[in-house]
Structure formats: C-alpha cells, structure tokens
Amino acid sequence: MRIVLVGPPGAGKGTQAAFLAKNLSIPHISTGDLFRANISQGTELGKQAKSFMDAGNLVPDEVTIGMAEDRMGQADAENGFLLDGFPRNVSQAKALDESLKAQGVALDAVLDLEVPEDEVVKRIAGRRICRNDSSHVFHVEYSKPKTEGVCDVCGGELYQRADDKEETVRKRLEVYHNETEPIIDHYKAQGLVVTISALGKVDEVTARAMEALQREGNDS
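User: That's the sequence. What structure does it adopt?
Assistant: Structure tokens below.
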C-alpha cells in the first residue's frame, strides 16, 4: 500500500506510522528522517537543505520533494510506503501526484488522524522531558513520574520544552490548519481520505487504523 499519514501535532503520527509500517511491511518515510539522512550523507539535496536550515529558513518545497522522490524510488519502497510529514502543503501534494503518475502508480489511502484541539494542547503542553536524557518522557496527567519534577529512570530534572508550551502549541496548530489541513480536501476530491479518531490507547488507534486501511484496500 502507498499511504500518506496526516494529522495535527500531538496526534501520534510518528508512533502510529512506525506500527502501521511494520504491520503492512512497508517503509516508514518521515520528513525528519529524510533531512537527517541526506544531511549526514552529504548529498546535494542535503547540502541545500542544511543551508536553508542553518539560516533559520524553511526548506523549499522542491528540495523536500526531491528527497522524497529519491527515497520512494529505493528498492524497499517498490511495493509501497507510508509517508509521514510529507506532503506538508497542497503544492507538495500536487507534486507527489505528478511524481507517482509518472511512475504509473498512485496512492491507496490518506489516513487522517483526528484529535480535538484541546486534547492536542493537553497532550503536548503536559509533556515533561528529562534534562539528562531526552528519551525519558513523562506527562503531568497521562504518565506521571513518581516524584514531581524528577525522572523515574535516572533522577534527572524534568522540564517543559519551549516548543511544548501552550502558546507555542496553539501557533503550531494554526500553521497546521493553514498549511497542511488543506491537503485533506485535495485528497478528498480523489476519494482517498480515511478519517479515524486518534483518541485512546496506542494499540487501539493502530487497530482502528489497520481496519480502516484494510476496508479501503478492499473497496478500491
């Protein structure tokens, strides 16, 4: 299957993408991984991306599209892929349509993870990260440390990242609504959008997503 995963910040896209890609035996292609791989390997596209990022600017669509096309052309993506974080806007969605059409293939589904805005804010603004190891993540409501402000794993101080503050989260949501959400209408016009609730436990959301994708695959 060839799938695009969309949803607001805090919808759990990265987590779901990893599980879904494993269940469907297709590669999980995320924009962040594309950038890191190209920059670390010193590719021409990576050098271009780094120059924009170092200047504090957004990486232009054509550079992101070039990286995505290169990755989708690799052998492990021959029978499908799951795109996470790309396309980011309608311009990128149209470029993806053209790229796939040129290869004689098409998307099978666009999985839209739906989460109420207040829940997104609660999920992200409640996160607390360990200063010693950023992989140690807690939540003031959903995954409380035994001692407030102290990491259960190593005893380090827990803090709230600037990106996770409520005002920043609401700005990120605004960017999502303005830039990324319009791609849902773009794909709805093609009959590709499958919307599911991203509320509940991780495995419940994965099961819901798999069921919706299998239904979509059977219908098409």
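The first helix runs from residue 13 to 24.
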